[in-house]
Specification:
mainly alpha; two-stranded antiparallel sheet; about 45% helix
């Protein structure tokens, strides 16, 4: 699968869903840019490469891996997915036509109802 970096519009949508930068008086290395790191995370997940093979332009692969895990623990990925699903419904690009009584079967179609 071919990787494509986040567009400006995609980044603007996701940026507000990420945790804010900590405003402590900590010293040391400044926090790596969220958009750069997120593109690195997506690069590894989309291409299936090893973390250590992530292109250097996305920063440290260790930072990307740690942020992936931290955002997973903090529920950031779940928030992003829920926001994307909600946006899909609002834009008419996603609909759930049928849900089984026991909630184990869901039929979804792209493009809204016909």
């Amino acid at each position: 699968m071919r990787f494509r970096e986040l567009s400006d519009g995609e980044w603007e949508f996701i940026r507000s869903l990420l945790p804010p930068r900590a405003r402590t008086g900590r010293t040391g290395r400044p926090r790596a840019d969220d958009r750069m790191v997120l593109n690195g995370i997506l690069y590894v997940l989309v291409t299936g490469c090893r973390w250590m093979d992530m292109p250097v332009k996305y920063g440290s692969y260790v930072t990307a891996w740690r942020r992936l895990k931290r955002w997973q623990r903090e529920g950031v990925w779940k928030r992003i997915l829920e926001a994307l699903i909600s946006k899909g419904y609002l834009m008419g690009r996603l609909s759930l036509d049928r849900v089984a009584v026991d909630s184990t079967t869901v039929e979804a179609r792209k493009g809204g109802r016909s």
